[in-house]
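Folding follows sequence. Below is one example:
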Amino acid sequence: MRNLAAASSGRSGDVRSSPTGLSVFMSMLIVLSSFLTPFYHCARLSSGHTVSVSLQSPWPAVAPASQELEFLSHLSGDQARQYLLTDKTAESLLTTRSVKSLMKFTVLNKYFSPMVEYHRSFARVAGRGCQEEASVVVEVAGKGLKGGCLPKGVCVVTKAGNSSTEDFGVEVQEGAVGGPSTTVVVYGEVKSLATTVALKSLMTECCIDCRVVFRHGDGPGDFTLQPRELISGYGAGLTIKNSEYKASADEGEDAEAAGSAHQGTGCGEVGVCWTRLQERFSEVDFTRAKANLKSEKILSPADRKLKAWELTSIGAQLLEAARGDLARVVEILEDFPARVVELSQATVAKGVEEQVSEVAQGLTQSGSVYVLGSGDVIDEKMVALHPFIDKLLPIYLAVEELAGLGLEESEAARMVRNATRLPTAGRMEWKGEGGVGPVYVYNVLKDPQASRWSEELDVLVQMMMMGQRGIAPLKRVVFDIIFLIDLADRQQVLETVGKLLVQPFPARIALVPSTTTQAGARAAECFSELYGSGRKKELKKVRQFLQALVRAANSEEDDVMSVDAIERVCEDVLLEALPPSGGEVSQVVKKGQAWAAAKGLPFPSVVVNGRVSGDLGDMALFINEDFGALGTAWYTKLVEKQKKEKGEEEVDWDSEEDDDGEVTDVIRELIFPEKSVDSLSSVYHPALFDDDQADLVRLPIEALRRVTSIEVPTTSEGPAAPLHVLVAVGGGLEELEENFVIVKRMAEVLEGRPGAIFTVVGTNPEVNARLLGCAHTLEALRNFKNSKCSKMSTVGPDVEEAAARLARSARAEDSRGVVLVMNGRRTELDVAEAKPILDDLLDSLLTPFAVKQNVQQGECCGLDSLACTVALSLMQTVAAVENPHREMMEEGLEKAFEKAPLAGFNLAARGHMVAQIVASVDPLTDAGRSALSTISHMSAALDGFGARLVLAPQEKYSEYPLKGWHRTVMAMGVAEEAAAARAEFNLTPTRNTLTLGLEVLPNWQVSSLRGEADMDNIRLTPVDPERVDAQYVLKQLYIEGQSYDVDENGHPRGPADGAQLQLVAQDQPLAETWVMRNLGYYQLYANPGRYDIRLKPNTVGESVYEAMGSNVVDVNKFLMPAYPVKLRLRPGMARELIYEQQEDDKSDGGPIHIFTVASGHLYEQLLAIMVLSVRNHTTSRLCFWFIDQFLSPQFREFIPRLAEEYDFDRRSSG
């Protein structure tokens, strides 16, 4: 076992060998040298130590040019294409100083490195089809590429089976106008001669009508041998072990205790046993070495343990030392253990302590809240490099886009800085009066299927923190939904009842049936007959009838179900013949219809929490927006309550008294318009452009200027929400007259609305010629008749290209009807279906954009009306939801700046301020220290970034608030890049034992790569080496999320716990995991690429569940959002079966699984002994699990030898 322990600590040797005479002699020499070496160092008295930490990427290094291309590709203009095809530099293609600084900063910090590697993963798959190594690979889907015209050395392959020709990458050429085109994907090195020649050949002679897309490639060479790079965006800390760190201890008591502990052993300072050494090496004089080790001069200030009273004013002493300089604060906090003794001895004026008391009482409770821009809240723990760039990137790019429209950078920055999202349409009071109103057919509180759902609103915050946007299983009446529909109309039934009444849903649902058609009236009679007096059993039959209608609607082919079909469905539920029609409408239906008439509601329509739409499809939009708003409101309410409590007592979130108040405040007053809540109402403004609900259709200004864009004259004064309506008219000339009905009506609706731009394009070139000739003004458009239009305008290539580009952006190339795009929200209309409800339809579509706001059109500073409208619409893509936290925090900060000037820190932006962070921070916490360091570094690196901070330390401390040194790893400039890619700690000798730890993003799996020292027990005494190097590697990126058991419509019924998921690439399994019972959480890991998440084959989960759709996840960022996985039960299966079958499948044939944790060389040696002990006590198969991130490189290399010697399986876990 002695040899085994030696091997596990990094020394070579075969575990099966026995000591020889030579090995014993060598061991004695090693022992002697290990004792003599320290005293050689003592004679030299080492004055300092350096601990160096670095983190390596697992994929090959990414060239700066590749990252610059990725940055430019996020702009809507032509910059990325020019960068690829010309000699221009990336910086010369940008206009604004602030965006240039951000590009430089992202490139230095490898922000786009995962995205480039994501592209390269496709390149490797495509390159497998090449016979020889090639620097450029061309992947073709289609037959438009000419053979033999590409330069030599270019490998051409047909489309690989990995969906790699999907729409991502830099579009170098758009392809043929109209009709399908060949798609060519080019993989190669950015800015290389071979890549440029290949791209130009494809555009000029090889594939003129092809769509050409560029993606990064690896280039020639073995992937595994290509050099890796050091990455940044994390923190490193050296922490003094808690076991030897008592802030209130007395030094004398410590020394006395230490002397007592070593009494009789001959051991003294720093654990050196002088008596034993003298006995063993009698010829050596240890007097000088003993004196040096006892000398206080060789000890670090961090060795001194301060008494409790010496730390009382440490917050005031920190502010006094900083004097408003944040860089100075960060400098002190980074080496706090070495600075705290000196800091604690500084005297501060009474006024300074009063200032600390002022800010501590007023702001400490909100110290975990940061506000960026116009109110975007950032959690304190996420104030790190990569999450911060995620927030800043769209804001900075918007400045560049506005500058491209013609604004000066100062004006563009001002517009972006002041941007706020527009409020959505108002809500009606839907409650009936005097007994008049719709009848409710469903209530989640009475649904037995929702019995497993949580009643706690905390599930909303948990979903928000994980990035989920779906509807959480919540046993609350979150939605009040009213359908006004014809129960005989197939489409109306499927759009409403079919989506909500077939599964539990956090809502109360009412129904008002229409009686305008014979079949609808008969369905309404059945509904009334079944409803009766509305008792529980009767409501159950009503729901059975509605569900049967859904089944009938799915099987029917006619748009309106027949009377016979309605009666058959009704009688199957009623179990008797439906009474003949009485001619009169029943009271149940009559009250609902009277209510609809009093509210002015048309049939069909849907009302969700007071929001009305004649488009039944808007129901899903309203539900998602309201649920998101509820989550935001609930989170805000939590923070507000924490502030009010002031930390005096623990908050009981589960108390019934508090819960009723919360439900009233958040649900009843925010979601339901019974009352108004001033303090929270402004959070209730969902985004106009929602990534999940509406496609952001880019409208390039140069294309808009060349087609029929009509500025709508204003008949009323006052500002309005900016609105750009794009109408893409499908079909040919023979359908133009019919389709133009919608165009004319849209023009009439828009007339008089301030701030509207109306663009009309045809998907057919002949249609465009007619429009340009006869509908180029609003008046001409109103009077347009296709048969009388003899004025055909000549359509030039640029106009044809612009119209085709806009039609493609609206996805209208194949439409025979009309596609409307309103500020990016797309709606495709069938003219025949839209005509009968056209007025109501257009009103409902325009309602969200008809709200006035406080942004004057004159703020566009000289832009023409078209550019101004585009600019104001662009602002909606970057504006944060206005949050009341911002006003409250800023008010508190201003008071703090006034009453406690030493606590206020104002970091002015260089150049024109684009974004500003507003925060109150307790600097003497680990999270606060890390956040301040990040803010300080980014402020120094970025133009246009500012901060207003109040440092709010606690009034009193009873122990060291920060027990370690800290470094934020962030590259700041080209000259500093190499140095900034690692953390350097320069420390004086200390008696303390230190532990090295990394602060990384939650989805990073980091392991040690190289390092001789024990990183869990670092000793920096004068006898230890002067330099300690530790190199880590980012092994994998975690993919995490929630897996739900959903119904056939995709609505969650609960977590799919117990299922086993597998991560698959190219049909090869890479990782697997279980779905947890806690909210259905799962976790997998992989490096950048495209993967499928599937049920693991031949498992119980696969027999019980099936995937709903494909679960494809793209890993292309350092910080990945949560990914939901939807599973549904197979026919005849129940969720409980997954555990019953697993119980039945238990057997004794598998190995015994043993999970181990060892941190530090000593515990690793003890772990090796434990493995031997287990093997000596059993002959069963064993499987040991090792937590990889805690293991040293030496022990990781030793584990295979250990497993071979003692015959066990091994697995590692992150």
